Amino acid sequence: MPEIKVMDHPLILHKIGIIRKKETGSKEFRELIGEIAMLMTFEATRKLELEDVEIETPITKTKVKQLKGKKVAIVPILRAGLGMVDGMLTMIPAAKIGHIGLYRDPKTLEPVEYYCKLPEDCANREIYVVDPMLATGGSSSAAISMLKNKGVKNIHFMCIIAAPEGLERLKKEHPDIDIYIGGLDEKLNENGYIVPGLGDAGDRIFGTL
Ligand code: PRP
Ligand code: URA
């Protein structure tokens, strides 16, 4: 069953409070995005399957758990999704990384695709699509459609801030994926920005304000 989970861990909520502040500068913003992504990875990987294997400790033989089955790939939506990758890699160092380049046309708010490079075996991996912001849902929905067109089935989406409008769209267009959200906000404004939100995530990560 696909899962939709809004985070409730105090450390995640505290850090989200700091990145929302307009006076938080790029260095701190970038570090916190990485830390939040790392903490969210715990929740988002809870369903990964384990298997028993026999090993030998210095004392005796015993059975331990190890991850079973499919390997992981992280697919950030450029640009802002890049800010989440290092934090996730701290938790899953062997993950491969794909990239999907999309930007939102400021007038139509429709996603425009400009890049797609994925691990060759991505159809056999658990894929974590990541983007700090789920606003109208156009970018993430398009990214997930691109992956499905390449045969990917096991898709999870992780964002730090979501608008209800984007969440509804993603649930409708991709009812089969897991969705992990740091904070679910009130609404979109007339320019398609999340309210209260945190402004433009890409600009704040890369200092291009
Ligand atoms: C932002 C954000 C998402 C998208 C969300 O990217 O990082 O990708 O907007 O909006 P949506 O849900 O309405 O599609 P942006 O288009 O600003 O590009 P950037 O990451 O290159 O700054
Ligand atoms: N993209 C952002 O970076 N922020 C928003 O609030 C909406 C889309």
From TrEMBL:
Matches recorded under InterPro entries: PRTase-like (IPR029057), PRTase_dom (IPR000836), Upp_B (IPR034332), UPRT (IPR005765), UPRTase/APRTase (IPR050054)
Pathway field: Pyrimidine metabolism; UMP biosynthesis via salvage pathway; UMP from uracil: step 1/1
Catalytic activity as recorded in UniProt: UMP + diphosphate = 5-phospho-alpha-D-ribose 1-diphosphate + uracil
Keyword flag Transport: no
One GO cellular component term noted in the UniProt record for this chain: cytoplasm
A GO BP entry: uracil salvage
Superkingdom classification of source: Bacteria
Annotated protein name in UniProt: Uracil phosphoribosyltransferase
Organism of derivation: Acetitomaculum ruminis DSM 5522
Gene responsible for this protein: upp
